[in-house]
Amino acid sequence: MNTDLQNVSKGLSFWTAFLAGRFVAFFCRLFRYPGTSLPGAVALKICPSMLSALAPSYEKIIAVTGTNGKTTTSNLLVHILRFSGISAASNSEGANMLSGVATALIKDCTLGGVARSPVAILEVDEGSVGGIFPSTKPGLVIVTNYFCDQMDRYGSLDHNVTLLRQSLDGLPRTALLLNADDPLVVTAGRGRSAVKHYGIKGKRLDREANGGGNTREGQHCPDCGEPLVYYYYHYGQLGDYYCPQCTFRRPTPDFLVTDVQDEDFLKFSLCFFEEEKEGEHGAVCSYKKVTRLQAPLRGFYNIYNILAASAAAITMGVSNDIIATTIQKYAPATGRMEEFLFQDRSCTLALIKNAAGVNEVMKTILRKEGEKALVIAINDMPADGRDVSWLWDADFSMLDHPSIKKIICSGRRAGDIAVRLKYAGVPLVKLVLEPGCRGSLEILGVQGAEEYFVLASYSTLYNYAKLLKKRRGR
Questions:
Q1: How many structural domains comprise the chain?
Q2: So what's the pLDDT on residue 205?
Q3: Which of 44, 125, 351, 372 has its CA 20 to 30 A from that of 38?
């Protein structure tokens, strides 16, 4: 690691901005304000080139971007690296825009402006890559997936994919770790040499992935426009695909998950690609099983997050044994299927923000036996996205299920949720309308179900987390 910010001009504006950011961060801690973005916002106002000045102090910067799974993937990677003895700076609470990234680096530096950690793991909002990548010049970029999300802000998925490629054009030395199962993500690696892929083998165990209710975003070949054909889906557009009219197809994963057991907790095998051989029916890929992983996480989608973090750690030289041991000890971030004890019952808090994500959360919930009661809390603040039309793309008909005892509709758009559930076939007798966060928990707590769930959008997520922590804690 550099002992100073070599070859970087640090004038009066930099030091004024840096010290202002540290000052704001101190007062945020003093008054118990989260302060995940404010210090960086203040610093960038004074010195817009703050990131460019701070980034060279790190030996390696890894960026994680995409729609779903960024927070879990980046936090898992930080967890693995720290367990292996490598300190890593990170924006671990999900403040993934320019000001949040600046805050993370400012907090990691000494008063002399030198990074304490050799590595920075940065979660980067998919709409902010154009401002963050040129400034930080990450050595590795991990791309998780692309789903429709906050279309009022982004406009379209094509915009996000194009923005990523444009942001990478000026970084020819940046290596990529891409989700092979997402055809939208794969296009980011075109024309680049330092690209590795990760994926999951086989069909989902619940046998529902090829049924209705899944939102298929990348349905057409990016080369010729023909509909893609799938050998199988995992969920959404993720799976094993090919174009019947041209050569576009799912790339061979360098890191592959097999033997998935998606029960209370995830269990699966991690394999490395060895070679491609000619078999009787064409090319056959040979893989070597390297470790069996078990994680205290729910949800099939979390396999992708664990796989991406493990693959990145392996490329940095972390041993398979350390990865396997560390993942078993991982505690999820706020709202990422985070478990609490509420009214002497298990209560799981989950972030929902788009159709693909809420579909997977609902499938995970329904896989559990016993009666369940839910709060679904949706806001339409800027952090959530003003447009909540994605509620009509999600398959809420899944909640018309005998195990669902009651659903409390909450948040600023509580009425919209209730209407959506009504048209999804959920009986009105199971619905309760309570916009207040505290009030919705009060109603949830008297349902007497075997297990409780709170599904919340961004701006209300932390309110529920605070209340659940006060009520008997985790």
A1: 2
A2: 43
A3: 351
**Tokens 């019952």 map to which residue?**
345
3-state secondary structure (DSSP) of residue 98: helix
Is there a domain that residue 7 lies in?
no
- Domain extent, residue 414, equals 336-470
55 SS3 class:
helix
The pair phi, psi for residue 143, each rounded to 5°, is -115, 120
96 falls within a domain: yes
User: Burial of 60 by CB count in 10 Å (0-12 exposed, 13-18 middle, 19+ buried)?
Assistant: middle
Nearest to 2 by CA among 58, 62, 60, 85: 58
The pLDDT value given to residue 278: 65
Residue 45 within a domain: yes
User: pLDDT band for position 285 (50/70/90)?
Assistant: confident
User: Residues 374, 417: one domain?
Assistant: yes
Of 195, 199, 128, nearest to 167 by C-alpha is 128
Q: Tokens 């003895």, residue?
A: 85
What's the pLDDT tens digit per position in 427-461? 999 999 999 999 999 999 999 999 999 999 999 99
Same domain, 150 and 48: yes
Q: Give the integer Cα–Cα distance in Å for 310 and 209.
A: 25
